[in-house]
Structures are given as C-alpha cells and as structure tokens.
Amino acid sequence: MSYEYTFNIYKKMNFYSLNGKAPEVGLEEAVVRGIAPDKGLYFPESITPLPQSFFDNIENLSNNEIAFTAIRQFVDGVIPDTALKDIIADVLSFDFPVVEVEENIGTLELFHGPTMAFKDVGARFMARCLGYFSAQKETQEPVTVLVATSGDTGGAVARGFLNVEGVDVVILYPTGKVSDIQEKQLTTLGANITALEVDGVFDDCQAMVKTAFLDEEITSQRKLTSANSINIARWLPQLFYFLFAYKQAKSKGKELVFSVPSGNFGNICAGMVAHKLGMPVKHFVASVNSNDIVPEYLKTGEYKPKPSVATISNAMDVGDPSNFIRIQKLFNNDLEALSQKLSSYSYSDEETKAAMQKIYAETGYIADPHGAVGYLGLKHYLKDHPDAYGIFLETAHPVKFLPVVNPVIDAEIEIPEQIKAVMDKEKHAIPIKNYDEFKSFLLS
Ligand SMILES: *Cc1c(COP(=O)(O)O)cnc(C)c1O
Q1: Does residue 216 sit in helix, strand or coil?
Q2: What does each C-alpha distance from 307 to 174, 291, 316 come to in angstroms?
Q3: pLDDT reading at 7 higher than 90
Q4: pLDDT-derived band of residue 356, with 50, 70 and 90 as boundaries?
Q5: Active-site entry in 21, 39, 119, 210
Q6: To test the ligand 1 pocket, which listed residue (118, 258, 394) has its Cβ within 8 A of the most ligand atoms?
Q7: The pLDDT of residue 9
C-alpha cells in the first residue's frame, strides 16, 4: 500500500547556531559547513509534529515511506521529493529488526548495513545529500571530508562516501589501535577514499583534524567538512531507527522505553526528535560507559566535561558529548523537564563484560560491548517500571569488536559476508608522523 501524506505547510527550513552568534542558514550550507562559524551546532528552526494518523497507520507503511514522511520538513524546498525518495531508498537498503532477547526486552539491531555499524545510515544519508548538492552545480568545487576515527566511525563514513561525485574523504586512524577488521574496512576501498595511518593515538588524529580546519593555508585551497554527528545530515536521519522500532513494537500494546548506548549523544538526541515529532515514548535511557558526564549532570545539575577515559566500548569514549546541547535545546534548557524523559546510567568495563556473559548464558544472544551497556541501563530502568516494553539499541555487530568479545564469550562468532569481503583485500594506507606531513598531504 502506498501512503502519501501531503504537507503544504512547510517552507524552506532554516538552521540556526546554538551559540547564537552566526547567521541562520539553509540546509545546504548547514550540511557543507558542518559546524556554524561561531562553532555552534546547527539546530532546525522548528520541529512540526507529524499527524496522529501517521502513527496510527505506521505498521502499514514501508520503512522508506516512514523515513520520507519524517525527514521531509527538514529538507523540503532544497531536495525535491523525487530525489529525496531516491536517496532514502538507497540509504535504507537493509533491515532494522527488533529481536526479542528476553520477556519485555527487545534489541533494535542497527548493524545490518554495509559496515555493520549504526553510523552507516547517517553517513550514507549525508554523503548522498552532498552528492546531490554537488550534482546541481555547474562548476564543481570538490569537498574534502576529514575524519578522525578510533575505529568504528571511519569505516561507515568511508564506505558511505565511496564513489560519491565531488567528494574526497581523508581518514586518519591511529596505527595499531583499531581492530584488524576495522582497519581493513578503512584501508581497502580506494577510489575517492584515502586512509592515513597516524603514528599516535586517536586524540592525535583528532587534534590534526581540528588544526587543519583552522589552517588558512589549507582552507584557502580545499573546502573542508567533517562527517561526525555534529553534521545535521548525519545526525537527523538517525531518528528513522526509533520510528522503525516503534512500528515493530507497537503491537506489544505497552509503553516503550529506549536505552541508547551513548557517546556523543547524537543517536539518542535523534530519538528524542522522533518523540518531538509525536512518536509515543515513555522514557529514554542514555547508557554510558565510565565516561559519565551526563549521568553526573542529571544528578548534580552541573555539566562538567572531562578528558575521555578508554573503555572496551570505545566508540563511546567521549568526555564532552557534543550533541548534549541539542538535547537540552529540545527541552528548552529545563533540567526538570528533561529529567522526566531522560535517565542516564554509567557502567564499568567489568559490569559490561559480566552483562555480555549473562545475556549469552541466559538467552544465547551475543551482544557487543556497546549493546551490553545499553542492556544494563535498560534493566536498571525497567526494575522500577516493569509494565513498559524496553528496547536497547545494538549499535555494532559483535564481530567488529572481536578482541573484546572473544575472551568474554565462549562461542564461535560467524563472520558475516560484508566483513569476509574486505578481509581478503589489500591494505593501502599512507603513514603520517606529524601535522606537517598531514598538511603536505592535504596541499599536494
Ligand atoms: C558512535 C557509536 C556509539 C555512540 O553513538 P553517539 O551517537 O555518539 O552517542 C555507540 N556505539 C557504537 C558502536 C558507535 O559506533
């Protein structure tokens, strides 16, 4: 059945900087810039709830129809409907199943995409938006996407942007610090993707990227952008996941609780946008590892960023979650109101490993360390709210974190096809020792 909701209410959406010292911009400028000139994150000027009939009917809609309806108000007038439908069909070409793990608990598996990371959807959506903008121009000014990765993000971004016209991708990763599978995913693509193997740790990679953005010798010659969840085209499409989960869990007839393993808080913030669009949600849980800035904030009212600490759920090792400011904005900076909808709990590596073992022993399900943190937060909340149905997000396939999973779970993990396909390919990476080498590379 085809479902077409006609909106005539939308005009071109503007995005404003949450620092309030930069002009409002349209979608294209917000996506190409990534971050506003005053270093603020862009935020949509309005979020208009979808009609009740959309949620009443959601089980009769395809994922593509749901996504189109949900994101349209943010891109309308810039990307035409036909192009948006093509982008969505291309981006969402895999499944997003809610798998029941135990009674009243399901896991939303977000790892069925090409790199088996939940960032596939955001990265692919952003890439196709940039590709669309570039195709509209008579003279192309190529954009260079710079990404520093601790392993998981880089693969999704690289793959998402592969062969997109007008876009070059440069990925920096710390040598010896990413798993073999992750390294293969970063270094075997070729075409418009270049991997730089940095002699250092993740923070060095990130520092080089930040310096490059401020280096006028480079920015006068190359148009640079970033592809992390600060970028609205990577952040907003994540709201689809929550709608897909709602569609599948609605028939349970219970109120829904989402537990989201969180690092930069982009994913959970997108879930809260889905709620703002009218999707019924009882509560959100932000489950974090030892990087506990947000749970501390909810407890004390003081937001105190700290240097990140390394954990086994390393895609969430963030000491100053960039998207938290967007969450605060969604609640008009009202901590009391926010606390009604959001709880946040922190777990150590030992607790995370124990959870992975427990889930496997009791249910046979193999959770990756990030999903296991999500499971723990969900269990905590459901203890006091047993009538709700809980969903924790599985943000990566366990095979992406084998060095952690193997010693903890005594099971043979089957290598999925997507991963096997890259394991046989040859690694190509350019070694980089310091910023000067990185800079010469960018200027060459
Ligand atoms: C990026 C990532 C997260 C954290 O998502 P945020 O949107 O940054 O909160 C969690 N798990 C995995 C596997 C990730 O790659």
Answers
A1: helix
A2: 18, 9, 13
A3: no
A4: very high
A5: 119
A6: 118
A7: 54
Rg (CA), the chain: 21
268 CA to centre of ligand 1 in angstroms: 9
What are the residue boundaries of the structural domains of the chain, listed by start? 95-115+235-412
Predicted confidence (pLDDT) per residue in 124-135, tens digit: 999 999 999 988
CA 95 to centroid of ligand 1, rounded, Å:
19
Ligand 1 atom closest to residue 152's alpha carbon, by position in its atom list: 15
Q: Whose CA is nearest to atom 1 of ligand 1?
A: 315
Q: How far is the CA of 6 from the centre of ligand 1 (A)?
A: 34
- Tell which wins on pLDDT, 177 or 191: 191
Q: Whose CA is nearest to atom 14 of ligand 1?
A: 315
SS3 9: coil
Residue 126, C-beta contacts closer than 8 angstroms, at least 6 positions apart: 31, 160, 227, 231, 233, 234, 237
CA 93 to ligand 1 center in whole angstroms? 21
CATH architecture of the domain 95-115+235-412 equals 3-Layer(aba) Sandwich (3.40)
At residue 3, the pLDDT reads 46
Residue nearest to atom 11 of ligand 1 (CA): 395
Please list the residues that pair with 226 across neighbouring strands.
146
Region of 16 (left: φ > 0; alpha: ψ -120 to 50; beta: rest) is beta
Find the angle CA(352)-CA(388)-CA(350) to the nearest 5 degrees.
5
Query: pLDDT (tens digit, 9 = 90+) per residue, 24-60?
Result: 999 999 998 888 999 899 999 999 999 999 999 999 9
Looking only at the bridges linking them, the beta strands covering 342-346 and 283-288 are parallel
**Contact between 338 and 220 (Cβ < 8 Å):** no
Q: Which residues contact 114 (CB under 8 A, 6 or more apart)?
A: 94, 120, 159, 418
Query: What mean pLDDT comes out for the span 403-426?
Result: 90
Q: How many helices (H) and strands (E) does the chain have?
A: 20, 13
The CB density around residue 207, as the number of other CB atoms within 10 Å, is: 15
Dihedral angle, C-alpha 87, 90, 92, 94, nearest 10 °: 180
Among 102, 119, 44, 108, residue whose Cα is nearest residue 74: 44
Q: How far apart are CA 336 and CA 249, in angstroms?
A: 29
Q: Is the minimum distance from the CB of 30 to ligand 1 under 6 angstroms?
A: no
**119 an active-site residue?**
yes
CA distance 80 to 56: 27
Q: Which helix (H) or strand (E) holds 203?
A: helix 202-214
